[in-house]
Amino acid sequence: MFISNASLIMQKYFNTKIWISVLALLIALPIFVVAFSWLLPEHELWAHFSENLLHNLIHSTVILLLGVGVGVTLLGTILAYLVVMVEFPGRKWLEWALFLPFAIPAYVLAFVYLGVFDYSGYAQVWMRETLGFSGFDIRSGSWAIILTFILVFYPYVYMMARASFKRQKINMIEASKLLGASPLKTFFQISFPLARPAVAAGLLVTLMEVLADFGVVGLFNYDTFTTAIYSAWGDYRSIEVAAQLASLLVLVAFFLIYFEKKARGQAKYYSTNVCNVKPYQASGIIAWLITLFVFGVFMLSFAMPMLQLLIWGWESIAQELSAKYFDLFLSTAILTFSAVAITIVIAIILALPRCKQDSFWLKNVIQLATLGYALPGSVMAVGLLYGINQISVINIYFGGTSLNHLIFGSIALLLLAYVSRFIAIAYNSIEASAQQIKPVLTQSARLLGASQTRLISSIYLPILTPGILAGGLLVAVDVMKELPATYLLRPFGWDTLAIQVYELSAEGLFERAAIPALIMVLFGSVLMLIFQVLDKKSSSNNIPLVNETECRHCR
Amino acid sequence: MLTIRNLSIKYNKKTILQGFNLELAHGEIFALLGDSGSGKSSALRFIAGLDEVHSGSIVLNGKSLSNNGQHQVSAENRDVGMVFQDYALFPHMSVEKNIAFGIHHLSKNKKNARIKELLLLVDLSGVEKKYPHQLSGGEQQRVALARALAPNPKLLLLDEPFSNLDQKHRENLANQVKDILKKTSTTAILVTHDEAEANKFSDRYGIIEQQQLKDKK
């Protein structure tokens, strides 16, 4: 009896293990495929790329990462320190307002800046006419794109540093004061060193986002690995070189993931109490200067771009808004809804089984499947294209037909790219909820006579629902604004709002691009608002909505 | 030496302490007793220069630090040391760096000599390179005391510093700290809710009852 029970359990465990492994490996497929591209390299074109372009690509990417890295670290940390440690006019609402740039996709902010500061934009026309200024090319050099990225991505460092500063014990700051330390000395010797791992984690997430970006670099005509991947595929029609370039990007991303995990591990909280007392009171002119600085960042990163979008939207609404927007909206909604549904189902399958906690293999395979969040959408797309291409080659070799028609547009392929890219977000949310289902809960329910159906409907689902909703909302926001994978893999006639924004703004039609951008920002904000409400509700019930140590989307 | 006049504390317009007057001679140890919420810790934080209150003035060694509830000298410049209830040691700094924090202006040799002297005083020689999390509660407490004493404060404030320790260690450490304060002739105010501890530790103690300070010893 005992043996038959044990073998039944073994069989069940084994099956679950296989299913989870197959699913996880399928999701991680694009990562494997790009790595395997080196087994069948296209020597001639790769030699051309590596001799003529690789040096410049590395140079421009390093400059970009360095500039943005320094910028977001300084801006994010200073803003977080000011709102947590110093009392100044308007601090309360500015503390929350500084999160708002998260609602604007990076490429939307980029096209607004281009529209305003380009040669024919308001700012330069005004400078030429009133100041006699000869003008400048916003696309030359790297300063403008670096500034744009800083304004888009500083909230990552701000978010992490703010949480860390809030959890520092007020007593330590006071002890430092009583030992005669000035506010600057306290910042450099106490507050910043304690927050350094959190700042580093925010910085590394930012660098991953910059590395993954396609829209901003595309609009600024700035060459990085993502644009080169697209060029290898789009211009040279070489999926092999695209995959080889993508694999280099994967390598850099892996380094960043490693350091990010390390930094998060060190970002210990020193107090469980959130500190709401401000150790420093700014007064007089200093207080107003601080307000001006923080308000200035908010204006530049959110309020002014939104205002500009609204003005452009108003000017072009009659011309731009037509029946085609119904199609754009519909295809965006179908893709988003399908991606969310599939991602959530897979995330539940990966997160729920308890057996994974004892299995080294399953833990690692799931970790591999959730690495996609750090990888650019272009890598996902190229991985899948290259994979299909190789399957085609094998199929033809064995007398079959080419599968390449799949390359030129298949919703299934695009959805798989979305799932690979965003599974981590859904997984972390659902995993956080699943951790609340303690074995003792199931055991008590069963002892009280609950059937399997009742166990699922009365215990599992109610506990998992907040995680499912939160994961779904966050995935929806990201799928809606996703650009590179959609750009490379979308089937004919399946343009999304994000594609419309990118294509119109790439042609300099900024006024027209404002309409789809505003629709996206509006829907993104509504989804984030619902998320915040859910988050607040869960916090009051003491149930984490997302796994804070793992998920960078808990904003 | 230390004169506190007419200290009044209000929370949300409710008076919790009023007419608090205290005079301490050089090297005297005073203990302040009271229930939770009686205002004893708030009074201590006002004396330290961390919080302002409804009214009250403080004069230390003839120098006015606060007047009418407002601070004239900031916490950084008052020459007042404090040992917190949870010690507030800097977790990323070693013991010697924690102690050196308030005496950074001294030359390296003088600084090292002072650290050595203080570690000897609190009977912790040999732990210089250790970090706070590697020490026991009592050891952390003594490091916090050494750190607060390092800049030779004119007044030392102790905010329930023994409350995190068990009874046996509590008594031992209270005796040791008292000896150290007497050896260094440091004027000190201890806040506690344990009358026996107040009696043993201090030269004089008072209790806050019905918003007033009443002398007990």
Notes on the structure:
The complex is a heterodimer of chains A (555) and B (217). Chain A has helices at 2-27, 29-36, 43-85, 91-97, 106-117, 122-131, 143-166, 170-178, 183-212, 215-219, 225-234, 239-266, 284-320, 324-351, 360-369, 377-397, 411-434, 439-447, 452-481, 484-489, 497-506, 510-540, and strands at 86-87, 280-281. Chain A is mainly alpha-helical and 555 residues long. A two-stranded parallel sheet of chain A has the order 1-2. In chain A, helix 7 crosses helix 9. Chain B is an alpha/beta fold and 217 residues long. Chain B has a single domain (28-41, 76-215), classed as Rossmann fold. The mean pLDDT of chain B is 88. Chains A and B meet through helix 8 and helix 9 of A and strand 7 of B.
How many domains make up the coordinates of chain B? 1
Largest sheet of chain A: 2 strands, parallel
Strand order of the largest sheet of chain A: 1-2
Q: CATH H level of chain B: which superfamily? A: P-loop containing nucleotide triphosphate hydrolases
Q: What is the molecular shape of chain B? A: globular
Structural class of chain A: mainly alpha
Share of helical residues of chain B: 25-40%
Taking pLDDT < 50 over at least 5 consecutive residues as the criterion, the unreliable ranges of chain A are 1-7, 269-273, 547-555
Level of helix content of chain A? over 70%
Strand content of chain B: 25-35%
Low-confidence stretches of chain B: none
The name of the CATH architecture of chain B is 3-Layer(aba) Sandwich
Helices and strands of chain B, in order, run as EEEHEEEEHHHEHEHEE
Number of strands of chain A: 2
Would you spell out the secondary-structure blueprint of this structure?
The complex is a heterodimer of chains A (555) and B (217).
Chain A: H1 2-27, H2 29-36, H3 43-85, E1 86-87, H4 91-97, H5 106-117, H6 122-131, H7 143-166, H8 170-178, H9 183-212, H10 215-219, H11 225-234, H12 239-266, E2 280-281, H13 284-320, H14 324-351, H15 360-369, H16 377-397, H17 411-434, H18 439-447, H19 452-481, H20 484-489, H21 497-506, H22 510-540
Chain B: E1 2-11, E2 14-24, E3 29-33, H1 40-48, E4 55-60, E5 63-67, E6 70-71, E7 80-83, H2 95-100, H3 108-121, H4 137-149, E8 155-159, H5 167-183, E9 188-192, H6 195-201, E10 204-209, E11 212-215
Parallel strand pairs in B: 3-9, 3-10, 7-8, 8-9
Antiparallel strand pairs in B: 1-2, 1-4, 4-5, 5-6, 10-11
